[in-house]
Structures are given as structure tokens and as C-alpha cells.
Amino acid sequence: MLSWEEDVQAHALRQQGWSISAIARHLGVDRKTVRAYLSGEREPGRRQRTQPTLIDPFLEYCRVRLADDPHLWASTLFDELVELGFTGSYPSLTAAIRAHKLRPHCEPCQVSRGRDVAIIEHPPGEETQWDWLELPDPPATWGVGRHAHLLVGALAHSGRWRGVLADAEDFPHLIEAMDAVVRRLGGVTEVWRFDRMATVCFPSSGRITPAFAQAAKHYGVQSVTCPPRRGNRKGVVEKANHSAAQRWWRTLGDDVTIAEAQAGLDRLAATMDGRRRVRDGQRTTVEALAAAEYLHPAPLVAFPAEFDVTRVVTAQALISFRGNQYSVPPGLGGAQAQVRHRLGADELRIVTTRGAVVAAHRRAPDGAGRVVRDDGHVIALERAALNAFSTSKPCAHKTRRPPSAAALAEAAKLRGLPATGPAAHVVIDLSAYAATAARLDRAPTFESQPESEED
Question: Which residue ranges does UniProt annotate as crossing the membrane (predicted)?
Fold first, then answer.
């Protein structure tokens, strides 16, 4: 490899009439090297590659993935390549993306970004930021509609975040998801910061609701709401939302269950604890910063918010709830009923639309696939099924019954064919209609009127 000075000297000597062999002897390099630099095949300061790099076998995969999704994060692509056997580093991947121009150009993304942003200090253990993330186009097997709901909580000081999937964004689901996130984070901070969620505060004023005030007292935290349209004020959780959407949801398969999706999200969040940080000139990681935060232990049980979800009773007198089935008395098949469950309680109740409690069961673990049945419900269902049996002769549904004559006549009319059978012998006399038509062939005149007796 020639330096810039040697390259300039080689070009100058060549213009002075030196031969390539003489220049090579003068510089102490091979003639092929001199010829390559003089022809422009090689550039100074860049060593010629003599063997394939680690990224070479994966270039086509990277090109296809970035063509399919031009906004795919390089870190997400790096995670996929590691699973495929890539042993190179993340900087080598990004360098290859730039050198080979693998990422297509996106003109709408080239926007100005010059807005000033203030720096907000977050002492350890002071603040947890919360936000709902609506994820579009969930797998059809989840049965959650057009969006899945993810609650993300992030420690403002360290940047550690965790997320939990929820069925909805109402108050009981918010409390249940928050309790799960708090236990994943390892404790409770002094302050919880939200945007203007209707389940936390009154959006018009930002004042906390009485229901959530009780939940905040249960966990021993202060609740703070952000000013409207100030997403940067809780930028830590917004960045966590971005990471969850790009590195987890964007690559989620169609055949993944909710439990598998949650497990994948937990793995991603734990992996991102290894992100490097620099604080006070010292290199550290998110995990080390989170370990130094002062977190209060979470309560032994969650805040007792009550769920009230609607379900339809099956023909087997069962109701589905959180991956399990619970029995009800017979006779309610196809009807709607309410499943009521209080967080922290071991029992759930099944209530009719009129408010009558028809069943109470001990709740099974979520997703266990159990069928919880009451002995009285089993006996009553068997008795109702036996009473429904009849000893009367069943309907002879296999008897041969061809179309009747009336049906054949109607079919002939539809086909435009002459009728057959008894309908074909019906004779209609049209002479009366012909005589009437002859009389009405001409309009009557004055001369044709009969003369009166006075004339």
C-alpha cells in the first residue's frame, strides 16, 4: 500500500518519463502495485482486501431485508445476523451498509432536525415514565382487533425499561400492567410521570382522577402529568417505545402467541440493559446505573382494581377468560355474561347481564389451558343433556322425494318451456278478447252515434 506522498511521487516521476520498473525500484515496491496506483485501480491509504470479510456471506440477506423494509434498524438487522451465524461487530455491519449502499434512499425522511432540546437532570430513583404504545396489525390469532396494547415503563435516570402487553387501556388493565412492569423494573420510584391519559387524569385540566389517586397511594408514589403536546418531557419512555416497535414488533411473526411475544419483549429489554453509557467521564452500562437507583419495594399485592369483561357462554356451559375456561349452570348457551375479577384475589365471579351471580371459581394461572368446573354444574349439565333426548322416531331425512308436478310446472315457466302435466290441459278461450279488440279498433265518431227520438 502506498501513502499519499508516495502516490504523488510516483505520478510525478511517471510524468517526467520514468518507467514503471524504475519507479518501483525507487519506491521499493512491486511493479504491479505501481501500475495499479497509476491507473487509478487502487487509492492511497486504503489497503487492498486479500480475503473475504465476515459480512460478505450476509450481504445479500442485508440487501433483501433493507429493500423490503428501508427503515429497519441496523441494530435489529444485527440481531438477526447474529442468529444466522454472523460473528462480526456492529460497527462492521454499519460500515458495510454504508460502503455497499444497502439501504434505499427515503426522501420523506430527509427532514430538518435543528430544534433545540433542553437537558433535564434525573437523579437516581426519582422518576418512572409511563406510556401506552398502540401496535398496529397484531396477529389474527390474538383476537384483539386492529391494535395491540403495550404499556412501557422506563426509569428516567438509567434508561432501563420494561413493557407488558394488555388486552385494553382501561383502568383495571392499566393497573395490572403497571404492577407487572414495576416488578420487572425491580421497585417503585418517587414519581410516576404520565401524559394526559384519561384513566390517570382529566385531560382538560391534568388533575389526577380519584380512582388513580387511590392506586398512587397504594404504591406510595407521586403522580405527575406532562403538559399537553410535550413528548420530549418524557423522552426516555418515548425512546423505549421506539426500540420496542422497531426491534421487537416490526419483526414479530404471524404465528406467535401472546405469551411468546411477551417473552420475546422481555428478552429484548434485558438485552438492552447492556447499552453503554458515559456518566461523569466514566464508562458504564444501563444495568449498572439501574442497580444504583434507589427503588422502593413494590407492595405485596397489586392495587385491587376490578375487571368486568364480557364473554359469551358456549354450548358446553363454559366461559373463556385469560387462557382458561370456567363452568356456568346449563341453559345459558349463547348468552352474554360478565367475568368479574379483582386484582390480588384468588376468586372470580361470573355474573349475568341482570347482575345475578351464577358461578364463582378459584382462578387458574393465566394461559394454563385448564377447564375449571363446579361439580354441581357438571351434574346439572349432564341431567339437562339427558332430558333433551327423545325416543320418538327421528325424521326420515334420507327418503326419496322428487320434485312435485307443481314444482316442475314452475320450473318450466322459468325455463320458458311449455308446461307439462295437468297444467298443460288448461284451455283459455280468447274469442271474447278478440271481439273487444275489434270494437276498439277505431275511435267512435259523431255520425256513428244513434239518433235520438226527438230528431
Answer: none
